[in-house]
Write a structure and sequence with these properties.
The protein is mostly helical. Helices cover 78% and strands 0% of the residues. The chain contains 15 helices and no strands. Helix 1 runs antiparallel to helix 9, helix 4 packs antiparallel against helix 10 and helix 4 packs antiparallel against helix 15. It is elongated, with a radius of gyration of 22 Å. 58% of the residues are buried.
């Protein structure tokens, strides 16, 4: 308690710095792999991807980023165990931010798409075990989150697999791909718009004063999606293509349409990612600010200070702009060869999985969800279409991430204790 009384302002400033570093790591790693499919399919240039991410990631983080924060802040560890020693919780959260941020930046340097959720949860569990003991960790909730890391990639992989198979059977593997594209692409536009609307309504509108029930949200999303599908049908119908073109040109024209859908889906993914994963940076920071401002009182719920969400959003954007290219390359071109139609299937499956998983209230791993979707698209073309060497490195980096976060957090926690005691 004396540490909070004597060093309160310093602790908040240090936490803000390390929170910004963590957000930087999220931008360099998670945002990069969220936009990687769009860059890998050449639907977007790296510069365009960064601009889109700047707009939609920041909007998602600022408008909707507070929703998942409570789970990160209060769900992983039992905060009641720290009631008599709030200074340990403050130092532990600060150590977790620095540990997870440092690991993410290191992984981004090597081009490994790792989970920011793994990083921060591993770090929080690590400091909690050494400061209070294993009883400080709510292992039941921890197990549920670990389960979501396995289930969500599987869901996204299955959705992407069948989405890609449907595109092949209905459009590409037919005698007249262009005619079938005009017939079926409006349906895919409807699905895309529906997922985007559901993501936006579920993640954003409640934080800007518009509260809709689940039924009202689905109804509004369906109406908007039908309008988008109709507009898409008019657009495709109005396009003039030369019937004398060979099959390669037909395929190229169809891929252009899916390229447009990819860009739209990338915007939705950026918004969803910003709203979901910014919690990994601002959750621990928000806990530190709340405890310091209340002179050591650990509240069950607390309001997020006005400056925390913008800090997280800015950090994410800068991280992508400065260090995002390597992870983009790994996801966009390293796992399997992607075309706009394949990338569209992966992106839409990932966005759909975010919608499905967000109903549970658990912070899902966007990284593993997207990699699962890209794998699903690759498997639809056969196991030989996957670069197993790259996948092996990715899986190894996933396994290392959780203990790496824990070990780094423990070491930093002891250093902070020595510095402030």
């Amino acid at each position: 308690m004396d540490i909070i009384a004597n060093y309160g302002t310093t602790l908040v400033l240090v936490a803000a710095l390390f929170g910004f570093l963590m957000a930087w790591g999220i931008g360099a790693n998670d945002v990069a792999n969220a936009m990687g499919t769009s860059v890998g399919t050449k639907s977007l240039t790296i510069r365009q991807a960064i601009i889109i991410a700047m707009i939609f990631e920041f909007a998602g983080a600022y408008l909707a980023g507070g929703e998942v924060t409570a789970t990160i802040r209060n769900g992983i560890i039992d905060t009641n165990a720290f009631v008599d020693t709030p200074d340990l919780l403050v130092l532990g959260m600060i150590a977790s931010l620095l540990a997870a941020g440092a690991w993410l930046i290191l992984a981004s340097y090597f081009g490994w798409p790792v989970s920011t959720t793994h990083s921060i949860i591993g770090a929080i569990v690590g400091f909690a075990v050494v400061s209070i003991g294993p009883e400080a960790v709510q292992w039941g909730k921890f197990g549920g989150i670990v389960g979501s890391w396995i289930i969500t990639p599987a869901i996204s992989g299955i959705i992407a697999y069948f989405m890609f198979i449907s595109v092949q059977k209905l459009i590409f593997n037919t005698d007249d791909p262009l005619a079938n594209a005009k017939r079926y692409v409006p349906f895919y536009m409807f699905l895309t718009a529906l997922v985007i609307c559901l993501v936006t309504i579920k993640k954003g509108l409640t934080h800007v004063g518009l509260h809709l029930s689940n039924g009202e949200g689905v109804l509004l999303s369906t109406i908007i999606s039908l309008a988008v599908a109709f507009a898409g049908w008019l657009y495709i119908r109005g396009q003039q293509y030369n019937p004398q073109d060979d099959s390669k040109m037909h395929f190229a024209n169809v891929e252009k349409v899916f390229g447009i859908l990819m860009v739209i889906t990338a915007c939705a993914m950026a918004f969803a990612h910003g709203s979901n994963d910014v919690a990994n940076a601002i959750g621990p920071l928000s806990a530190v600010v709340s405890i310091v401002e209340s002179s050591g009182q650990i509240a069950g719920k607390s309001t997020i200070a006005w400056w925390i969400l913008p800090l997280g959003g800015i950090g994410i954007v800068i991280g992508l702009a400065t260090m995002g290219e390597k992870v983009m390359a790994t996801v966009g071109t390293g796992i399997t060869h992607l075309t706009p139609s394949r990338g569209f299937a992966a992106q839409l499956a990932t966005a759909a999985t975010v919608v499905i998983a967000s109903g549970t209230g658990l912070p899902i791993s966007t990284t593993q969800t997207l990699v699962g979707a890209v794998m699903g698209v690759g498997l639809a073309r056969g196991i030989a279409a996957l670069n197993l060497g790259v996948l092996r490195n990715i899986v190894v980096s996933w396994i290392i991430t959780l203990p790496a976060g824990a070990i780094l957090a423990i070491a930093i926690f002891y250093v902070l204790q020595a510095c402030f005691s």
